[in-house]
Amino acid sequence: MKEKNIILNFLNKEIVKLKKKLALYTKGLDETAGAEKLKLYGELLTANLYRLEKGINEVSLEDYHGNGPQFVTIPLDPHRSPAENSQFYFKKYLKAKNTRLALKSQIARTREELDYLDGVKTAVEQAGEMPELVEIRQELVEQGFIKQLSLAPYIRKKNKEKLKPSLLSFRSSEGYQLFVGKNNKQNDFLTFKVARGNDLWMHTKDIPGAHVIIRTEGKDVPQTTLSEAAVLAAFFSKARGSSNVPVDYTPKKYVSKPKGARPGMVIYEQQKTIMAVPDEDLVDRLSIADTRID
Questions:
Q1: Structural domain count, the chain
Q2: Cα distance between residue 169 and residue 232, in whole Å
Q3: In terms of DSSP H, where are the helices of the chain?
Q4: 220 in a domain, yes or no?
Q5: Taking the CB of residue 106, how many other CB atoms lie within 10 A of it?
Q6: What is the Cα–Cα distance from 257 to 239, expressed in whole angstroms?
Q7: Residue 275, in any domain of the structure
Q8: Which tens digit of pLDDT belongs to each residue from 195-235?
């Protein structure tokens, strides 16, 4: 599908850019790893100003911060006074400290974007119909990754409409309704619009993939239904080709969305973990063509 390839090519380029940024930020963090040493130099010089004279290239001073006294050799600028050398190291320390804080923030933000785009890429790869690509494309526009639509006329036309996310519907072998969101828009819609507080929510542990809901109707979910829903979560995830996939589950009431979080991103608690093996035959057997979502 041409449209799918367009989005995948875009995502791959963005992911490569972010990985390069992450490597540069990480290198910068490594280069400022000696910040605390600069602070120590400044402190030791300040504590020994009365013993120092201008014009020396280095000095060896006792450091009592560790388990016992040890000598630290500190390079000095002979053209600076002892106090000026001390202030020089404090300024370098503050600059390195601020740089490290900025780099840590940039690293965290870049990793978050990488995780996000990795999840979007999984959704694109598993998208089977044009409406799913429409939802993903709209999301990328809303999140600022794409400035304008440039896909097929179908997508530009549909983008003008307020589309309601569609969901995949299944029924467990024990009769429980199961719902799956295949991309971030569907996941948010399923988890926060469709699911009820006591429904069971599932998602692969630390792996991009679908949100899965078991409609409990206030009943305890049997093990077979739980296992089948976990298979759906594993199958509709980046781990589809794996043989043993960890899936977290918890009542939907313990799932929340942090303020300002990207689509599909949630936090949850009180979870348990079940292992599942992706099984396309089981997915096909449980699938139902149409169902009413109350």
A1: 1
A2: 11
A3: 2-31, 35-47, 82-126, 130-142, 153-159, 184-189, 223-235, 280-286
A4: yes
A5: 17
A6: 24
A7: yes
A8: 998 999 999 999 999 999 999 999 999 999 999 999 999 99
The answer to whether the beta carbons of residues 3 and 133 sit under 8 Å apart is: yes
* Number of separate helices (H) and strands (E) present in the chain: 8, 10
Instruction: Determine contact, residues 282/231, Cβ cutoff 8 Å.
Output: yes
Q: Give me 65's structure tokens.
A: 């911060």
What is the crossing angle of helices 130-142 and 82-126, to 10°? 160
Residues counted in the chain: 294
* 58 domain residue, yes or no: no
Radius of gyration from C-alpha coordinates of the chain:
28
Q: Please check whether residue 199 is in contact with residue 255, taking contact to mean a CB–CB distance below 8 angstroms.
A: no
Q: pLDDT tens digit string along 181-191?
A: 989 999 999 99
Q: Tell me which residue of 294, 108, 123, 52 sits closest to 196, measured CA to CA.
A: 294
Q: How far apart are CA 43 and CA 34, in angstroms?
A: 15
Bridge partners of 71, per DSSP, are: 62
Asked whether 135 and 186 are in contact (CB, 8 A), the reply is yes
**Structural domain boundaries enclosing 183:** 168-286
Position 82 in a domain = no
276 phi, psi to nearest 5 deg: -140, 150
